[in-house]
Please model this.
Amino acid sequence: MVHGCYRENSSWNRTESKIPAGVAAGHPATVEVGLRVLEAGGSAADAGVAAMLASCVAESVMTGLAGGGFATYYDAETATTTCLDFFCAVPGLGSTRAAAPMDPIAVSFGGVPQRYEIGPSSVAVPGVPAGCGVLHRRWGRLPWQRVVAPAISLAHSGTLLPQAHATTLATLGPAMLPGFGACVYAPRGRLLTGGDLLYHPGLDAALSILSEEGPASFYTGGIARRTVETVYGGGGNLTYADLSAYRVLVAPVLSASLGGAGSAAFGGGFVAHARGDLNGFIATLASLPDVADLSRPLRAVAMAEALRSYGTQRLGDTTNISIVDPDGNACVITLTLGLGSGVWLEDLGIHLNSMLGEGELIRPGTEPGDRMASCMCPTVVTEEDGPLVLAVGSAGATRIRTALLHTLVNVLVDGDDPETAIRRPRFHVVGDLVHAERDYPEDELEALSAAGYKIQRWDTFDHYFGGVSAVGLVGAAGDPRRGGIGRTL
Model:
């Protein structure tokens, strides 16, 4: 396992790259915003910031301005990869009191009730505005106001709610509907359904402040003051010190080859580059045997063995954006709001995160100011000598690793285009139990059963199995499980 992807003696020239410029994400409006910024001459980072902010408007069932995430950026000129950590931090700096108890809720996922906690005490320090600022400062080309403007326009008009998001909203009602959430997600006394207008009163004002005052407004300005008044005043432990101390971090880049990748479809080897996530995606990738030499049933068993040591059925609200610009730079962003705390900055249309309500994301020894753990793993894949071949990431909490592994095998071993790879049915392993999506091949399930796994067959093509978005050598695609699409310039 190595760090980074720069090869000093590489003979590759970035102008030879054949990967198209494109955007893949969880909502058509997010994709459209990213593409328009690329057309205006923006870099992958410019388009990434614009699309991320657009997702906070159009995909608010999944994410929001008060959430956190990670970005993996590939610089084509230097063939280097950087991972930015703008995930949520544990609050409590300068506080001498214990937070009030959180509010327990239950949501059903895969037919199994899951217990979560929301309320002011579930709110962690947000990172999305700071992450946008650093991405733009390091790799952006267009003016800041230019990349924020499309999200302001979306927030002013509202966006249509995809059916996949409406299905998720129905599941997450206990987290999304308390207080001001009812005005957003059930504005006429009924829950929004697919095709309805999703509109957040005041969110255009919040984004206008972000445009005019920059990300600092969320950490030392008026929005920071409102956040502390709302959370600390409600019994949580988020303080001014927490917000003013927040910084975007640079995470180590881990790399691994996928066994046999390239030999069947492309004739060369490939290396994936990403952060070290809670579920160990890069380590999982490195542990696989040469899968290209295995039959599909045996390959399924090998994948299950690599995946079996991890996994739960925690839900998690997440979305992913993958972008490649005309120069071959890539930006992959995964971000989340948790489930949403049910606590809002009402006149600004901002739903605060509930990350502290997922206790397993707080590792032993974590102190105020420390980052929480995460399964998110935005990834870029390059040839062994440097050129980019795939920008990919996934939503789905503990199923992120599973969805990424299936997609990489489908693309890099079988030679699928991104759309075909993402649409293929998947399985997810929890201990000795394999959750198999509708239409997963029976011969592979039989091999898994013979290897000792119990099989739970799902009769749906389901949100549970993640939400991949990818831009590759032969196109871009979003995951239909979560209403995603992909488009190229």
Summary: The chain has two domains: 20-249+318-361, 254-313+379-488. The CA atoms of residues 217 and 401 lie 34 Å apart. Residues 44-58 form the longest helix (15 residues). Residues 20-249+318-361 form one domain.
